[in-house]
């Protein structure tokens, strides 16, 4: 079974973060879960670890609506540094937005693998990891 070394949740929704973390722990498919409540802290972490590939996540679950730096702003910064990261980081947008404009905008960004509308189910989470 596929196992992910590190998954990062970038989301300020405490309930989503708690439930998703519990589902990931129960699935035993992820070794380490890092949590950031806004895009700024997540982007700073990635920038600080550009020379340390092992510290960087394999997958990011990214919310769009957050304080300080939202998901769109995070993606703008991520796209700029992506060529110097040194590993492929898979980004899934996990949002409660059902706006077709958000889905279209997200799918136009090469670094975004998929757009998942909350709530996240355990089956969807496990399927997502197994399909890597």
From TrEMBL:
InterPro entries (UniProt xref): CheY-like_superfamily, Sig_transdc_resp-reg_receiver, TCS_response_regulator
PROSITE patterns (UniProt xref): RESPONSE_REGULATORY
Residues carrying 4-aspartylphosphate: 63
Record Gene3D superfamilies: 3.40.50.2300
Residue ranges of every copy of the Response regulatory domain listed in the record: 6-132
Domain of life: Bacteria
Keyword terms, alphabetized: Phosphoprotein
GO biological process: phosphorelay signal transduction system
PANTHER family: RESPONSE REGULATOR RCP1, RESPONSE REGULATOR RCP1-RELATED
Protein name: Response regulator
Organism ancestry: Bacteria, Pseudomonadati, Bacteroidota, Flavobacteriia, Flavobacteriales
């Amino acid at each position: 079974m596929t196992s992910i070394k590190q998954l990062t949740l970038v989301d300020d929704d405490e309930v989503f973060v708690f439930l998703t973390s519990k589902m990931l722990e129960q699935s035993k498919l992820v070794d380490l879960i890092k949590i950031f409540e806004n895009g700024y802290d997540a982007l700073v972490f990635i920038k600080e670890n550009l020379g340390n590939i092992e510290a960087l996540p394999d997958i990011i679950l990214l919310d769009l609506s957050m304080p300080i730096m939202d998901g769109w702003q995070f993606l703008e910064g991520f796209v700029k540094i992506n060529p110097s990261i040194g590993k492929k980081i898979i980004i899934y947008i996990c949002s409660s937005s059902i706006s077709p404009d958000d889905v279209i905008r997200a799918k136009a960004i090469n670094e975004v693998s998929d757009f998942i509308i909350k709530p996240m189910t355990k089956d969807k989470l496990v399927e997502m990891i197994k399909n890597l």
